[in-house]
Amino acid sequence: MKATQAQKPQRYVTVVDENKAFLRVIRRVVDHSPSQETRVRNKIFDLTSSLLRACHARTTELDLEAMATADIQLVLADLKTLRTHLNTRTGNLPYGQRLHFTKNMAFKKQSPQVTA
Fold first, then answer.
1. For residue range 80-98, what is the model confidence (pLDDT) as tens digits?
2. Is 33 exposed, middle or buried (CB count within 10 Å of its CB: 0-12, 13-18, 19+)?
3. Is 9 helix (H, G, I), strand (E, B) or coil?
4. pTM of whole model > 0.90?
5. Would you say which domain of life the source belongs to (predicted)?
């Protein structure tokens, strides 16, 4: 049997303000979860944290302050897009995937315009 090395978690360098903003967004997502089981809440915390940090560090800078105050459904939509399409090892988000809360206009999802 070939010996394999355990995978170490990715380490991303963030400043204190970004770290606090990450935690605010993650807490909102965890609190929105209908489950009260600790195991499920911990899994949601870990997955949300890894997706947000990988995207922010490797793909595009996220607007964390806007995520902390915006509608939770928009935040969950972005997390669903990241979970489905983001490669956390390489930071690759396929062409055509757009996010609501990004500072890079190449990844920005266009808001629907209301015509009256």
1. 999 999 988 888 988 888 8
2. middle
3. coil
4. no
5. Bacteria
